[in-house]
Write a structure and sequence with these properties.
Oligomer: single chain
Shape: rod-shaped
Order of helices and strands: HEEEEHEE
Largest sheet: 6 strands, mixed
Length: 150
């Protein structure tokens, strides 16, 4: 009987330690995903502002990392004509039912093809091109267009 109580206590202790470790790993994973999303949004914003300040036909190619948990990427606006001054990554974490927004405001108008942006929702490293054009989607205004790198 003493041995059974000792084994039961040891198993209970082991399960508790494993549960706490699992929660810590999930929390660290969520924080890492948010930090990677923040770095990618910052990089996109900074380069978009740089090339936009230079004016057309300035162009740059950068690599961004898309972490696990990205549910949506919006560059410019999420409504037609998709031009605006925001870059927004929505990150789903295990700690929250609602995705967290990682948003940066740009100094100049930016846009990105929604179909291309949906292709970036899978984790990994992506080469993207940021090019300033004179006539942004037929509006007659300049903007930075974010597209796949050639």
């Amino acid at each position: 009987m003493e041995l059974l109580v000792t084994v039961a206590f040891a198993v209970l202790l082991l399960v508790t330690v494993i549960a706490l470790a699992y929660l810590q790993i999930n929390s660290a994973s969520d924080q890492l995903a948010l930090q990677e999303a923040q770095q990618s949004v910052n990089k996109l914003k900074n380069v978009a502002d740089e090339v936009s300040a230079q004016g057309p036909p300035a162009k740059a190619t950068i690599e961004i990392t898309i972490p696990k948990g990205i549910t949506n990427i919006t560059i410019g606006s999420d409504t037609p004509p998709y031009i605006g001054r925001e870059i927004n990554f929505k990150v789903q974490t295990s700690a929250s039912a609602q995705p967290s927004d990682v948003i940066k405001a740009t100094l100049y108008d930016v846009t990105g093809d929604p179909q291309y942006l949906q292709s970036l929702l899978h984790p990994g490293a992506y080469q993207v091109s940021i090019e300033v054009v004179d006539d942004c989607l037929g509006t007659g205004n300049p903007c930075a267009v974010i597209s796949p790198a050639p």
